[in-house]
Design brief:
Layout: E1 5-8, H1 10-19, H2 26-38, E2 43-48, H3 49-57, H4 63-73, E3 79-83, H5 96-108, E4 111-116, H6 123-136, E5 140-146, H7 155-166, E6 173-178, H8 185-199, E7 204-208, H9 215-224, E8 229-232, H10 246-255, H11 264-281, H12 295-298, H13 302-314, H14 321-334, H15 344-358, H16 367-373, H17 386-393, H18 396-403, H19 411-418, H20 426-434, H21 437-446
Helix pairs in contact: 1-13, 2-4, 2-11, 5-6, 7-8, 8-9, 9-10, 14-15
Length: 455
């Protein structure tokens, strides 16, 4: 019988998609760690640079300590770290020396698997990061092939990108990443054989969201098309804008006469504890979503919807979210159909929000959009609208950036320029480099992470 394996997304993507990445502290994670380690996952999608920032800002927890504690509590299961390969924590592009130090530091603290998502699918960025990860001791380097719908994101586009990625010797695994929940069973039937034919013998995984209501059906069709590693979440951090529930998929796998090594009883205990946490903390559980065709137009990732809602709510403007979503569709088209994935989805969303809030389109242009237009994050898939291009190029900030090559200082040079001396650890240096001083100071003042959590 064909065996289906699972990558768990509960602690990272489920938390981000449903609880705006702020929902789980280290103590909460450690309370379910033993059972998650018994569950039989291929890997656990544990943390990303966004989540590391959240740990500091919202929980006053050292994210590197968080990794250490979790790795000790789940020694049998590889924990994964997600990166764009171009930045760390914030949405500003970082020098290669910073990216390399991040990979070395997370590996030293217990990360064994790294997944990279580059919205431009830039093979130079992918190859460079894969090489640095392997040099840091990472066991499995995984590259996301990000799915999108546009006039340029065709089967031929994905075949070409998949072929380039698979040719990189330091890439171990490819996964089809449907961050917007846009795949349908019919599209899986068309696209998966194309990708499989392009990557040869390298493993292929799949990752989708339930945003449009089709996640479980997409996975069952993916199995029929030969994919045997699925990314799922554990309720209450499944469904909604998160990944399909592992319990539902395990039942579907059985109906397809496939087998799994999943320890369902251990997962039931995890689910019970997470529901208890949700009740105590006032967090809403994910619920199966009805089919929603709107997602195929705006293509906003599940995690970004909750973040946009929170950010607008903090400004007292949550009621304007539908307007922002509509504006996102137009901004994306004008910018040449960037794939709506971190950080480009945030850039597009921020520009759309500013257009709506200010009442004048492109009155304010954030640095991320300028950097995107200048190619800091790779080439745009299609040409950028001439009027938008003219507007961005007329800005003084753009003119200044155009005169400067993107700097590539060493870590030693960055330490010297920032006044962060050699007596400061690499962990603290990376946090001080990426975050505000008061945020890091508050984290340090809070002391070691409390590993206990009681419902």
């Amino acid at each position: 019988m064909k065996k289906i394996r699972f990558v768990d997304t509960t602690l990272r993507d489920g938390n981000q998609s449903l609880w705006d990445a702020t929902g789980l502290t280290t103590g909460m994670i450690l309370s379910v760690a033993a059972d998650m380690d018994r569950a039989g996952f291929k890997a656990i999608d544990f943390i990303s640079s966004i989540h590391m920032g959240v740990s500091v800002k919202y929980h006053k927890e050292n994210p590197f300590e968080k990794i250490r504690l979790a790795a000790r509590a789940m020694p049998r299961t590889p924990l994964s770290f997600g990166t764009t390969g171009r930045r760390f924590i914030g949405f500003v592009r970082s020098p290669d020396s910073i990216v390399e130090l991040v990979l070395k530091t997370v590996a030293a603290n217990g990360i064994r698997r790294v997944w990279l998502i580059d919205a431009a699918h830039d093979i130079d960025v992918i190859s460079k990061n894969a090489r640095m990860a392997k040099q840091a001791g990472i066991e499995e380097f995984v590259v996301a092939l990000s799915y999108s719908i546009s006039p340029v994101h065709t089967d031929a586009y994905y075949a070409g990108k998949a072929r380039e990625i698979a040719a990189c010797r330091d890439v171990d695994t490819v996964y089809l990443k449907d961050q917007g929940g846009l795949l349908t069973p019919d599209r899986v039937r068309e696209l998966v054989p194309v990708i499989r034919g392009a990557i040869g013998e390298k493993p292929l995984e799949i990752h989708t969201h339930c945003s449009a209501g089709l996640g479980p059906q997409v996975y069952l069709e993916a199995i029929r098309q030969g994919i045997d590693v699925l990314h799922t979440a554990i309720p209450p951090l499944a469904d909604g804008t998160s990944q399909p529930s592992i319990f539902e998929i395990v039942e579907g796998v059985s109906a397809l006469e496939c087998e799994t090594d999943v320890a369902v009883e251990a997962l039931k205990r995890v689910s019970e504890q997470l529901y208890a946490i949700a009740e105590k903390e006032g967090r809403a559980p994910g619920k199966p979503a009805a089919y929603d065709a709107a997602y195929y137009e705006h293509q906003v990732p599940g995690g970004m919807v909750s973040t946009l809602r929170r950010q607008l709510g903090e400004a007292g403007m949550e009621h304007r979210l539908p307007e922002v979503i509509e504006e996102i569709k137009l901004v994306r088209k004008e910018l040449g159909y960037p794939i709506m994935v971190t950080p480009l989805s945030q850039f597009v969303g921020t520009q759309a929000a500013m257009n709506i809030i200010s009442g004048k389109r492109y009155k304010i242009v954030p640095d991320g959009i300028i950097q995107y237009v200048l190619g800091y994050f790779g080439e745009s898939p299609a040409p950028i609208a001439p009027d938008v291009l003219d507007k961005v190029h007329s800005l003084e900030k753009t003119k200044k950036m155009m005169k400067e090559q993107f700097p590539q200082p060493t870590v030693e040079e960055i330490r010297k320029a920032s006044g962060i001396g050699p007596d400061v650890s690499d962990e603290e240096f990376l946090l001080r480099y990426s975050l505000k001083e008061n945020e890091v100071e508050a984290m340090l003042a809070a002391g070691p992470i409390n590993p206990e959590y009681a419902c």
